[in-house]
Amino acid sequence: MPFTQQNASLSVFVVEDNEWYRRFIEHTIALNPSYVVKSFATGKELLDHLHLKPDVISMDYHLPDFTGDTLMVAIRQQVTDCDIIVVSEQEDIETAISLIKNGAYDYIVKTKDIKDRIHKCLQNISDKRSLNKRISVLEEEVGKKYEFSKTLIGSNESITRLFPILEKAAGSMIHVTITGETGTGKEVVAKSIHYQSARRDKPFVAINIAAIPATLIESELFGYEKGAFTGAAARRIGKFEEATGGTLFLDEIGEMDQAIQVKLLRAIQEKEIVRIGGNNTVHTDCRIIVATHRNLLEEVNAGRFRQDLYYRLFGLTIAMSPLRERGKDILILAKHFVDLYARENNQPAKSITESAQLKLMSYAFPGNVRELKSVMELAFIMSNSDTISDGDILLSSADVISESISEELTMKSLEQRILKTYLSRYDNNIKLIAQKLEISQSTIYRMLKEMGL
C-alpha cells in the first residue's frame, strides 16, 4: 500500500540509529495529525523503502552504514523531489553549508529546542509544497484556458483551418507573424501559442508599438542605465530582458520607426541588447511573435519597412479573418460573450432573440471581435428580461440593413434586406453569398425571384 495517506499534508521518513532518539523524533513529528511518519534504524532500510516516495526525509548525519554525504547521494539516485533534513549532534558550520549546497533543505543540531526546529522546518516545507502545487494548478488552468479550440471560438473554416498551423507554431521556435484587422484577436492567438509551447512557464510580455511615442520605444524595448538621461534615476530593464526565457509579442510592428527597426534587427540576430546609456551587452533569450494590420511586404516595397528585418521575421504567417467574413461565427461568439459576462458577474444566463440575431448578422463589425464583445456586454446590461432583443443591441455604425430595424417588419422583409446587403457587399457573387449566409444557392435564387430581381 502507498505510504502517503490521502489526507496527509506530508509523509516523512526518519532514519536514526539511536532507538530512543528515533522514537523521540517520530513522536515529535506525529504530534501534527496531518503528518504521516515512518522510521528506520539504518540507511539501507531507508533506501529499501524509497519506492514509497516520501515527501521529507529526516536523517541522522552519522549512521552505522552511511555518512550524511554518501546517504544523500544514494537517496538522490532514487528520488529527486523529496526534501532532506539532516540531524546531527555536532554544530559544524562547514558541514552544514556543504550539505545544503548539495541539496539538503536544512541542518538541525540535536539541542533542547530541536522539537520546535523540526516543527518549524516541516511547516515551511509543507507551505512550500502547497504553494508549488497551487502554482502548478494555475499553470495548468492557464494552459487549458489558452487551448486553441477554447481560445478561437467559432466553426467557420477560416478559424478551424488555423488549428494545425497553431500546433506547429507552438511546437517549434519558428518566428510567427500574425496579420489581420484591429480587433480580430491577434494578441489572443499570440498568447495561445506561448501557453501551449515549451515556454509556457516563463513570461509572456506584450508591447503595442503604435501606442508608445517613437522617442520612448527604444527605452521600452532595451531598457536604460541610471543617469542615461534626465529622469533616469535608476536602472530599468526593457521588454527583451523582461521576456527572458519566454515570449516577446510586438504588436503593430508595422508602425515602428526605421531607426528602431535597425536596432530591433540586431537584437533578434545577435540575441543581445545594450541598455540606453550602457556599454555592456546583455544576452537575451526570448521568442519573438509579431502582429500587424498592415501588409508588411507592401510596406517594404513602399520603403517604410526594412527588407532585412522583414525577411528576418519571415516565418510562419497566421492570417486572422475579419468577423464580417466568418458567417454564423458572429452568433456563436455573441452567445459566448453573453454567457461569459453572466458567469463573471454571477448573473443568470440570457438567450438572444431571433430578431437580435438578424440584427447582429446584418452588421459589418468594423471593430471585429473586440467590438462584438463590447456590444454584447452592453446588450446584457440593457436587457430587462432573460432574453436579449434587437432593441438591446446598440451598434455604433450605420452599416446595418437599416439604421433602425422596425419591430413591425416581417421576417421575410428582414431576410430580403439581409440578402440585398450581401448582394451589394459581395458584388452579386451568389456562390460566395451562399457560403457566408450558410444557405443553398437555390434558396438565394428563390428569394431573388420572390423579390422580382
Task: Give me a quick take on this structure.
The protein has helices at 19-30, 43-48, 68-78, 93-101, 114-145, 148-151, 157-160, 162-170, 186-195, 214-222, 239-242, 258-270, 296-301, 307-313, 329-344, 354-361, 368-382, 411-425, 430-437, 441-450, and strands spanning 10-15, 35-40, 56-60, 83-88, 106-109, 176-179, 204-208, 247-251, 272-274, 281-283, 287-292, 316-319, 351-352, 387-388. The chain is an alpha/beta fold.
Describe the structure.
This protein is of the alpha/beta class. It has three domains: 10-139, Response regulator (Rossmann fold); 148-321, Rossmann fold (3-Layer(aba) Sandwich), CATH 3.40.50.300; 324-450, Helicase, Ruva Protein, domain 3 (Orthogonal Bundle). It is 46% helix and 13% strand. It has helices at 19-30, 43-48, 68-78, 93-101, 114-145, 148-151, 157-160, 162-170, 186-195, 214-222, 239-242, 258-270, 296-301, 307-313, 329-344, 354-361, 368-382, 411-425, 430-437, 441-450; strands at residues 10-15, 35-40, 56-60, 83-88, 106-109, 176-179, 204-208, 247-251, 272-274, 281-283, 287-292, 316-319, 351-352, 387-388. A five-stranded parallel β-sheet has the order 2-1-3-4-5, sandwiched between helices. Strand 4, helix 4 and strand 5 form a beta-alpha-beta unit. It starts with 9 loop residues before the first strand and ends with a helix.
